[in-house]
């Protein structure tokens, strides 16, 4: 059974807080697939998620390195598929192994690899850019 939650966010701090709440309940093996336009707040949401997973380090976007790893109560893998050219490139990075491991995998630009996502992935969509309020939809 799938559940859907919608959260209105009026600021980056509220977006981060929403991510932190989700991070606190994630279990080992969870995959969180984030989508939204450039500037919608995906990294901001992930900063909260990583904090909610118990990491003392502030998450930064791995746009150029593609994968960042953080230590929390479980290993946290933060993947940014924005600059990837193909599914093969993502698979060569070991994405399938990350998603099937004991850590939590957070994927920005997940729409670029929808066919690789596990059926139980948690989908987070963030709508709104610039000074607009955000609508965060979480589907589990």
Helix count? 4
Using the 3D structure, state the CATH architecture.
3-Layer(aba) Sandwich
Number of domains: 1
For the biggest sheet, the summary is: 7 strands, mixed
Q: How would you describe this protein?
A:
By secondary structure, the chain is α/β, with parallel strands linked by helices. It has four helices and seven strands; from the N terminus they run E-H-E-H-E-E-H-H-E-E-E. Strand 3 and strand 4 form a beta hairpin. Helix 1 (12-25) crosses helix 2 (42-52).
Provide a compact summary of the structure.
This protein has 140 residues and is α/β, with parallel strands linked by helices. The chain contains 4 helices and 7 strands. It has one domain (4-139): P-loop containing nucleotide triphosphate hydrolases (Rossmann fold).
Note the main attributes of this structure:
Rossmann fold; alpha/beta; 4 helices; 140 residues; 7-stranded mixed sheet; 26% helix
List the helices and strands and how they pair.
Blueprint: E1 4-9, H1 12-25, E2 31-35, H2 42-52, E3 67-71, E4 75-80, H3 87-92, H4 95-99, E5 104-108, E6 122-127, E7 134-139
Parallel strand pairs: 2-5, 2-6, 4-5
Antiparallel strand pairs: 1-7, 3-4, 6-7
Helix pairs in contact: 1-2
């Amino acid at each position: 059974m799938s559940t859907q939650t919608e959260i209105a966010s009026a600021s980056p701090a509220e977006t981060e807080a929403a991510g932190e709440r989700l991070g606190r309940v994630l279990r080992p093996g969870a995959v969180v697939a984030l989508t939204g336009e450039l500037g919608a707040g995906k990294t901001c949401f992930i900063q909260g998620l990583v904090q909610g997973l118990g990491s003392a380090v502030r998450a930064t976007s791995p746009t150029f390195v593609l994968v960042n790893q953080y230590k929390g109560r479980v290993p946290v893998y933060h993947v940014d598929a924005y600059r990837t050219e193909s599914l093969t490139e993502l698979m060569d990075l070991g994405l399938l192994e990350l998603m099937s491991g004991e850590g939590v995998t957070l994927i920005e630009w997940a729409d670029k690899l929808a066919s690789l996502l596990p059926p139980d992935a948690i989908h987070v969509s963030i709508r709104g850019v610039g000074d607009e309020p955000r609508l965060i939809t979480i589907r589990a």
